[in-house]
Fold this protein.
Amino acid sequence: MQQALEALQHLDHRGATSADPLTGDGVGVLTQVPHLFFRKKLEAKGVRLPRDSDMAVGMLFLPGRHSGVAPATVAAMVAEVERTAGEAGLAVLLWRRVPVGEYALGESAQASLPDIRQVVLRRPASLVGGGPDSDDAFERLLYLTRKRLERRLSAMAGGHIYIPSLSHRTIVYKGASRRAASNVGGGGHGASASMAFLRG
């Protein structure tokens, strides 16, 4: 993870910058799901999973405070995530708001800042204990659930949503700041493999 963040810091010349010099055109890190981090969060709520691979994590960009979308609509979107997950046999174990260092954001990035949340889901009982084939089936189920959520949530919020990732293998962190990358993954992320990327 640290190497991926350092790589992003050395690629500043490859990305674009808006009229606001602190707002870039987007950077990101794709990394393994940090199981230790989320396991601690779950255990703090009294939830224990038999295997780390029974946990999936979704990264959701919901409408932020400047989006014009009413808070009641955002709450309804959270409920829709839980309903859609339930339809797929995925139990919601945890919601987490992702801390954002707004000090690192330019005016443009702050104006479009989403409500960034993570949702932790449990593997369906029907896909437990089947080895690699069940892992692949779990990942396919998560992909289909993400596509279903994108359609449903976008219809509720007029397109003000984005789901960077929903997987039991990887997670994607994204941002539009030119200096926030140095803080991604702080707090004991613990992933052993990461890949940095940027738009441009």
Q: What stands out?
A: Residues 132-157 form the longest helix (26 residues). The first strand starts at residue 23 and ends at 32.
